[in-house]
Structures are given as C-alpha cells and as structure tokens.
Amino acid sequence: MATDRSTDKRALRAELRERRRTRPAHVVDAAELGFTENLVKIATETDARVISAYLSTSFEPNTRPFINWALADGRRVLLPIARQDGLLDWAEADGETETEGLYGLPEPAGGILGPIAINDADLIVIPASAVDGRGTRMGWGRGYFDRTLGSMENCPPVFAVVFDDEILDEVPREVHDAPVDGAVTPTRIIRFAR
To answer: Is 60 annotated as a binding residue?
Structure first.
C-alpha cells in the first residue's frame, strides 16, 4: 500500500537525518577525500564533459571539492535551482558564487538555463538519504530529482552520493521513485544491474 510505504519512508528519512546530524565531524571530514576521489573516477571513466551535480548542505557529503576539480579540468558543471512548481532549473557552476535558494538550500547565483539544460549532461550526480542494492534511491521527500530523471528520454548514468552505512538492504519504493545506476560512498563505487 502506497501510504504504508510513504509512512515507512518518512520514518526512515527521520532516522537517517538524525544519523547524519550526529555523525562526528572528524568522520565527515575524513570521508570527503574518498567521496571526491570516487566521483573523479566516475567522471573520468565516463569521460563526462558536462556533469550535473549539486551543492551539498552542511549535513550531506561535501560535493564542492569534486565540483572544483571538474571546473579546473575544463568540464562544464550544471547545478540545480529548485522551483515552486516542483521542477528544477539549472545554472552553470563557477566554483565560487552561491546563494540561499528555496527551502534554504544552497544554489548557484548564475544565470538560469531552464529545466531542459539537464539534457546536456553526460553524468548526473544526485543527493540521497539512502540507496539499496537494487538501485532504489530515497531522497529527502520533495521529489525534484525523481521528476527530473523520470522526464528524461536519454538519461546518462546517474549516481547517488551516500555514506557507507546508507547503503541498505532495502529502501521503501513507490511508483514515482527513479532508480539510480550506482552509488558513491567514501570507500567504494557501487554499480547496480538495471
């Protein structure tokens, strides 16, 4: 039943949010290098010239070192801007300019490219609260990335970024949940069969 899954997801998200909130700073700091190395490896392996990424919040794995690497390596990086209507606009990263967007989330301050800019991406890196072994990703409950991925005809590889203990045996799945091709943790890259 969808409402049961929805309730299960809310409870699991609350647990994961608390786990992230109480994760010791030295553990988060130590994980940053592993996240960056693994994201660089994926971008290099896929030869992604245009990368869709996101600006992490204070409780998410830090994506800024990866974004800065991509820009320094001459790659184009698209960052999401949340809209009231549930869609995502995109802007090019410059590695410096950020503003506070909808829901207090960090966003790029550059010119808006519109929702279809994501179609230029060769690789999509998205946030997640958890991922399971089937590639089911659970976000934070607003559905922005599920809508975006679900609307793409030719979706490039999609990787969710999570801590090692957020790879779960099972994540409650609803019809609208878009699966991911893989997950990046500080210690490994996991690819899912699709």
So the answer is: yes
